Amino acid sequence: MTTDATIATADGRRPASEAGSSDAPTSLAVATTGLTRVFGKQTAVDHLDLQVPYGAVYGFLGPNGSGKTTTIRMLLGLLSADSGEIEVLGEAMPRAAATVLTRVGSLIEGPAFHPYLTGARNLRRLDASDATANPATSRQRIDDALARVGLTAAAGKKYRNYSLGMKQRLGLAAALLQPRDLLVLDEPTNGLDPQGTREVRNLVRDLAADGTTVLVSSHLLSEIEQVATHVGIMAGGVLVRQGTLSAVLSVGAAELRVTTPDIGPAREVFAQMGLAERAATDPESIVASLGDHAAEEVAKALVEAGVRLRGLQVERPGLEDLFVSITGEGFDVLS
Length: 335
Description:
Layout: E1 28-39, E2 42-48, E3 51-53, E4 57-61, H1 68-75, E5 83-88, E6 91-93, H2 97-100, E7 104-107, H3 119-128, H4 138-148, H5 164-175, E8 182-186, H6 194-209, E9 213-217, H7 221-227, E10 230-235, E11 238-244, H8 245-250, E12 255-259, H9 263-273, E13 277-278, E14 285-289, H10 295-304, E15 311-315, H11 319-327
Parallel strand pairs: 4-9, 4-10, 7-8, 8-9
Antiparallel strand pairs: 1-2, 1-3, 1-5, 5-6, 10-11, 12-14, 12-15, 13-14
């Protein structure tokens, strides 16, 4: 079951799971209820209630084997669920896949193209196979998609000669051949250099600014923290945190860092207030978990005790720290 979830929607309207009927308006571009998938004796996804608001950049995080890619494949109708319900863009999946998926762009587990064709010709074949695509605008849309991912100069190069990063860029270009209401990206920066990673980050921001909802799975937590409006954290097939980025980060325990030449008296004040101190690298700093205390309350007690304050700062864990504390895994093992 989903635990410790902090749920929030972009505009405060009721999530799909609380709406009265399937025809009721929803603020969610992606919604699952009790979504479950079992492989043999292993439950890969366990009663998942995913909520991705329209217009959000939703960072989908979790260690290797946590169920992220399995979830994404079920959302797109590439894998069947054992139980639960899925709605994408307000339609039940996979029943409405034929109409819904034309509005969804995706990059899942790396792109696959014909190795003997150039990047541009690969996109041309993809576009020609799309019954909803307008042939009259094909060339312009392909040129625009290649330019958007920085592949214009390599458009005439054969795919088999592309680097891993270039292949990933071409996969993104394929997802952008037509305007999309939802973009689902599984590790979109895989193989990209720092400049390419920044470009993808800016691309995601631009797409969101244009109204596209983006669901992105990534192991680069610092990148997700810079671009995401919402996050969901998976561990062992269970969604353990979900909500706006600010709400999820606020769950982490705040710490108070005090810089003072009077470390001894400051420690006495912390002890009297029941603040749990932890080791600090700076000999003139003392750090403790705030718990239920307000920073102003601690500052007042320190001043009244004659402690000279050179600095007082409230610190909250970043996304990487929170992720490690929740899952027990480092960011380098994410998938």
